[in-house]
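User: quick one, fold this
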Amino acid sequence: MSFQPGQRWISDGESDQGLGTVTSVENRFVSIMFTATGDIRKYAIDNAPLTRVIFQKGDTIPSHEGWQLVITDTEDTDGILTYHGTRVDNDEVTSLKEVMIDHFIKFNKPHDRLLNGQVDRLDWFRLRKDSLKHQYQQQQSSLTGLTGGRVSLIPHQLYIADEVGSRFAPRVLLADEVGLGKTIEAGLIIHQQLVTGRAQRVLIIVPESLTHQWLVEMLRRFNLHFSIFDETRCQEIANASDEDEAVNPFSAEQLVLVNLNFIKDNPEWYEALIAEEWDLMVVDEAHHLNWQVNNVSVEYLCIEQLAQTIPGVLLLTATPDQLGHESHFARLRLLDPDRFYDYQTFIEEETHYTEVADAANALVANKPLTAQQQEVLTTLLAESDISALLSQLTASEDEQANARKTLLNQLLDRHGTGRILFRNSRNTIKGFPERKLHATALSMPEAYQEAIEDFLLSDTRDNLLEKKQANYLHTPERLFDLASIKPWYEIDPRVDYLISLLKTLNKEKVLVICAHAETAIELENALRVKEGMRAAVFHEGLSIFERDRAAAYFAQDEDSAQVLLCSEIGSEGRNFQFAHHLVLFDLPMNPDLLEQRIGRLDRIGQTQTINLHVPYFEQSAQSALFQWYQEGLNAFEHTCVTGRAVYEAYAEQLTDLKFSPVVDEKTIEKFVNDSHQLHLTLKAELETGRDKLLELNSSGQGRAETLVEDIIKQDNHTSLPQFMFQVFDVFGIAQDDKADNAIALQPTEHMLSGNFPCLPDDGTTVTFHRDTALACEDYHLLTWDHPMVTGAIDLVLSDDVGNSSIGLLKNPALPAGTFFLECLFTLEATAPSQLQLKRYLPTTPIRVLVDKNANNLADKVSEQVLDQQLVPVKKQVALQLVKALKGQVAPLVEKAESHAASQVNALINDAENIMNEKLEQEWQRLSALKAINPSVRQEELDFIKVQQQELDTYIKKAQLKFEAVRMIVVTH
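Assistant:
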């Protein structure tokens, strides 16, 4: 090595030090100053781990003054280089001595790093190459956005998510029955819209009671970090802003969650909300937005104004028909005011929908069509002659089946609200478990009876209704606790009942739900003190982390709790379907709440019968409530779709029963019988009004099953685990296998990056197994959509990780010293994310393998062969090889780039053809559909044409990018 003061060198082991300058050469030592960090290093000249920095003709180098020079010539004076060339900013011809080059220069171009001896390990190169391959595959995958949710693979949910999530600015009403997963459908749609770039900013509006549930659901199931905005949050942001320049609080976040009362009661913040630009709005419990022709609620007006400015709208509601046609029209009007502009016109159309549904129901049920039904079909499908199909309905079995299927498909295309309304019912969706009731009547402790009577006699009924204690009449342990020092669990027979049940069930998991957090906490203490039983507690007083820990303690197979004691919040948002026993320690007043409790176990995918254990006190308000649920509504062993309506009709009588010191059996019997009759009447009306055509459309008709199969196939493929283990190894993340298909990840001191995505300082646990992730909600389910996976790919490709490498090829058939350059390029174009450019032109890897004569051998020598045969090379040897071959590398890189460039036009043409063909087909399909179904919006058709024109421009601007180079040297 020959050193001169003023020369520029880089440290082979500390490349982040930037460009160093030789300050002195004394005897056997050289001193280098790294101005970027302020460090001075002293090296032995004979073995200094340094590489001389020499730029080539055509390179662009930065001056320490900030301007850049394109080199045209290089002059060497006594070992000091002067670069001559042209300034980039003003085209001035000038010179730049090497000592004046910017100290902070970083070599990230592959060939620059190679020529300056900055080479990475072979496994880093392979990681970069694999990252490019997987990025390419996922950008054009039809499953992108659908696989990342921590959800069971339920066909109808995935179908709705795929159908709606792939649309431009979807505007739909999700109206599945209770327990069929409207929230999951909405989450899947939001996730797909965000992951695919169709949406960037999402606003969720929910009732106040559901705010926390939505926050947790979006985070735990879909890795979406929504921010709750309330008065405090808005004031904090507003106060922190400059007085001269007011800041809209809602501009601080992309994903925002607010409750409906907050925006209704705060006009100032509502104006700020509506002033922002949003891509998608989601409104839960939309049936509470009251609207009548002459009486519109403030809540409805708030959502209506937002719906007029936000392109995409999802409304979630209970079964629409339960609340009448007027409310149903109101919600459709929010989605498409041009289409649903007049209520009377809608009523007229509804009569035709009924006729259509009647004919469709007959087709679905394989019943003969009446003359009227045939006339309806002939009129509705007038543009095509269906007489032959109608005649086939009386032919052979195969011909009948084919004719019915064809007629149904034609009806589905024309169905009035079928494109904007999705409604599934338990009648059509299979996979729900059986429920089995185990009721146990217990004697009411005298102390409880006294506490109840003392409260009822303490004031007038109207005054008592205003008191918090009125909520305790169904939970007498709380009334007793207010007046007694003695713990309630020492006298309550339900405690001994629960202990006996847990012993009988051995180690089977049991979920216990009670109304109050205090009851759950004290019940855990009773089980531990009395019997030494391990129990987890889950209530609203815990942080999200503590709740996760309790749920995980319950979910584990070993060293876990047999029982999870939940307050009412335990019946919200959590999935405990691995358990098959539910104890209702008390009963809620509202049937919806009872169904919500049972719904923690009664879910699609539950494999076993659900055992409902209900201990209740005889001759009490509890026993009256039990009779009402069991005999009046049959709500324990069957889903009660009439529950809300019957509850609202008999709310006053339920309150009377609760406030009766002595429960009269005849009064209860009449009340239960009357409720049962109303229940049967409403149920019959709902069944008569069922639109089987709409249900058929909503469930996906076979396409849903195909989606599930495709996702299962991707879940079971080994490519993702192999890739992520490769990532963990390269980035220096500690991995510890756990017993239940999971891996514990921990940061280490030697990590390649201190900010690895989704890896907190205290580590995390991941799994590639969907069932494991569903059982253990504190585990991350890694899929190609997960931010840890997408973030790792971005981390690799946005930096210089693995873009320069050297390997030795031991092959006696080739002369020693022969070398090759393996170059990786990508063809990529950029466009606004909503245009979906990557579907047609993904970032496409191009591999070139050149020999010393610049011949491209990529087709003859596969990358797999090289990966298997190449062996690593020591750093010092790598530097010697680079110096020996340096003069030949730069021209070969240029030749490799020309080989890659020769493939660009064909790739661009293919992308344009694919794009035009797919979008033209989509436009033709929607145009044909719009002619017979007014639910297709003109905006959707217009967007396709705009998208086609703009994509054509962006695809033509695609450019080649040099991604990585690997020098391969033959040795024997």
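User: anything notable?
Assistant: The chain has six domains: 8-106, 153-336+420-427, 342-416, 435-617, 717-783, 804-971.
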